[in-house]
Every structure is written in C-alpha cells, then in structure tokens.
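Hey team,

Filing this mostly as a record. A colleague (T.K.) asked me to run one chain through the structure pipeline before their review meeting, and I want the input and output archived in the tracker in case anyone asks later how it was produced. No errors, nothing strange. Just documentation.

Input sequence:
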Amino acid sequence: MSPIRRPFLNEEKAEKKPSRFLAFSAFVGKALLKFFFLLLCSVGTALLFKLSYPKDSHSLLAWLALAPFMVGILRLRGFWGTILFSWFTGTLVYAGLYFWIYITCLDGGGMSPVLAAGAWLGLSGLMGLFFVIFGGSCFFLKRLKSFFPLLAALGWASLEWAHEMLATYVLGFPWFSLGYSQWNLPQIIQIVSYTGSTGLSALIAWCGCCVGYAFGTSSLKKGILHLLFAAGLFLSVYGYGCWALSRPEPRALLRLRAAVMQPNIDQYKKWSAEFEQEILDTIAAMGAEQTDKNVMLMIWPESVTPGPVQEEPYYSVIKGIADITGAWQLVGSNRTADGKNLVSAFLFSPDDGSLTFYDKTHLVPFGEFIPFEESVRKLLPQVQVLGELGAFSAGKWDQPLLQASQVPFGTTICYESVFSTRWHNQAKGGAKFFVNITNDAWFFDTDAPYQHLAVSVLRAAELGRPVLRAANTGISAVISARGEILSRAELNTRGVLQADVPLPLGDNRTFYDEWGAWFAWICAAIYFTILLSTMVFSYE
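Output structure:
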C-alpha cells in the first residue's frame, strides 16, 4: 500500500544539531582571537611608550601611546578581565622603559642575572599597578560614552600627580610622566609654564584616548569627530608653543658666567684607592683650564671626589681650583653629621674657602637606602644598597638656598629632579636658576641617562628658570628658561660647558610658579568625583 501524500503540508527535514566538538572549537577559536587581539593592544601600547621616551625619543608617538590600550578597554566587558589586561599592559610598558634596571643591577650592583631580572621585572610588575588603577577606573568611566576620553585623560594626569605626591612624602618611583616624553620638542612643552607637566600629560593622554575611542566605538560619526578633535588638540598645543617661543625673553642686564664640569670618571675607579691620585689630577687639570675665563661659578657632579670633600686631600684640591680661578665651586660629595651619612652639595667660597652645603632630601630606593629596612631584611637578609658607600639618611626638608656672590640658586641632587615640589619650593624661595648634579655612571650607556636628562628640561620650562646639569659621565647640559637645550656633553666624554645665565630684573615668575599644582588639583577633583558617582550608579 502506497503512503498517503499530503501536498498541502510543507514537510522539512529535521535539522541536525551541531556537534559539541564544533561548538567547543568555535568557542576556543573566538577566545583565541580575542586573546591575540588584546595581546596586540598590549604590545602596541608598550611599543609606543618605549619609542616615545628617551633614548629613542620619537616623542610624537606619545600622543598615540594610549590608543591601543583604550581600544582593548572598550572591547572588554568584564571587570576582572579589564584588571588583568591593564596589569599585563602596564607590566609590559614598564618592562620596556625600565630595562636599564637589569643592566644596572647586573653590571653596576654585581647581582646575579636571576636577581637582576627579578629586580627589573618585580619593579615593572609593581609599577603595572598604575595601569590597574587607571584601567579599573576606565571600566566604569566608559559608560559616559563621548565624555569617556576626557575623563580618562583627567584620571591619568591625576594618578601621575598622586604617585609623585605619594613618593614625595612616603615612597614611590615617579620616574615617568607622559609629559617627559616631549623633552626634545620646545614647541610642545611651553604649556607647562601654566599647567606643569601634569597638564601636558593630560593633553597627551586626552589625544591618545580620543584616537582609541575613535577606533573602539561602533559609531562612524563619533569616531571621525574624535579623530578630528585629537588633531585639533595637538595643533593647538603646538601653535601655542610656537607663539610663546616667538616672544622676546625677559630683559637681563646681568649674567652669571658658569662652567658645567663633566670629568667622566670611571665608576670602577671612583672608589678604588689605586686610582685616587689619578682622579684628583683630572679634577685639578680641568679646574686649571678655567683660569682667566671670568667664570663665577663652577659646577661639579655628584660624588666627584673619592671621599668627603671637606676632608684632606680633597679640600685642598677644590680650594686650589677656587684660588686660581676666582670662581665659586659647587661640588657633590657626602658628609657625616650627628652619626648620619648624607649626600650633599658643597659650595666653596673663593674668598675665604668657607663651605656651605645642601643635603639631599629624596634618596634613591635601594640605591641609597632600603625602604622599610627592618621588614625587608627579614624577607631578604642579604639585601644591600647598590651604592658603594652604604646607606644614607635624608636631609631636612626646609633648607636655605645656596648663594654665589649673593645670587641665590636652587640645588637638586640626582633623583630629586623628578620631584616638582622640591623645585617649586626653591623657586618660591627666590632661586634665580637651578643646578642639578648627578652621577649617572651607574646606568652605563642605557636609556636611563637620557630619561634623567628629560626631567630637567620640563622643570626648566615649568618654572621659567635656566637649569645647569652636571653629570659625571654625562649627559651634562645647559637648559634655557624655556626648556631648550643650549649645549650638552654626551655620554662617556670629558668636557666643560660654558653658560651665561641671565639674571632678569624682577621675579619673572610663571603662572605655574605662582600657583603650583592648581591644574592637578582640578583634575583630581573632577576625576574622583565623577568616578565615585559612576561606580555608585553602576552598582545601583
């Protein structure tokens, strides 16, 4: 019997359910695609940061550095995924910027490769927490859509400033600021005379966040508008800088003639008694060359003598130079007071050989002291400071300015260059110019000496005062009040830089000098208020 046909019914074959294997393969493929996309965002961010900063110094790339990170943040949906992505990105960024720590610990500190790598990666991972806080806040702030790039930029600037303040009074390592990446672009950095380096960091972050948002949003119109805004932002900063540089500098009837000395003394010879006389002969010969050159102030780097300069035979060598040149001598050395070792800068008078001094207030963690020493030694009993002379104590915060022929000037030693508050306080105290003395020989020919130089450039532009930088093996520099490097002595060379430091009439104070971290306070107030509000509403 034939089956009954029912043409009025559209019978379809039953669909086969996809196999579990195919479903699992699709899931894994999608997860791998997302993983490699986020990995690309992290690597792209780290690469842009590395290329932006010294010594590569492709500075304009910094304006795009946060763009890949922003794209990754916008694509992620979960909070903990955002945190993990942020920490990995931050660790990668700082590993690239801090690679010199591995070289310093290995060759300068005598550590094993394993311990040197541990110090390098450990600090990178710890600093990666900056990106964790920033990325975690972006998870909530991205709900604000078109306002997200602005709030993210304010957040970046606020966190940079908060880190510096934490390091100023407690502990931290604020070696990097986005603003420092622009050190070789005078047209860009002029804005810091109003906002400080925090303001420049905010503008750079804003531009990068706008570009990232443009590629991360699904709206073509919003994307184009944000790209155009980013371009306009950069051109506005550049245009203002060109205008500021075209204006005449303040009139100066008087000038102080200075000589910045770079003796290029090998780090391994410095603390060896075998080479002591050779070092003293080098210093004496370089000093004698400045005879009859009308130099008023000679600036020597940090730790230029093998021992305390107020003791013999070092005192006689420096006093002899002061006698034959008639110039004040600023010499970096250590001293002992009240049972404490201090890193100091001594100023020798050419008239009577009397000494005044400035003591370093911000010491290098693990280079000059061990933070939370008692607790650290319980975990790592063999830990030592990298410096040859052992641990030091910090100087008093409130110290009078040094004066050469009644001209007051600000003094910072080495790592103190990164603390804007130290410079700002001395500027308010009446400093006519600044001196930064350092011994960067520990860093060898790595990125660190270039990164360290960049900081002084921003400090000069912030406060509108020249900076004279003396480094043992380089990079010494004469920096104008606008942040332009007028002359420099390269790494591992011996030389002298002559500088005629203008002494303008009146105070000649910048807006930043007058009002300090006003921009940072406004950034922080807006950022934290909106962030907390967004977090509360998101949980409701």
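Quick notes for T.K.: Residues 453 and 475 are 7 Å apart (CA to CA). The chain is about 50% helix and 15% strand.
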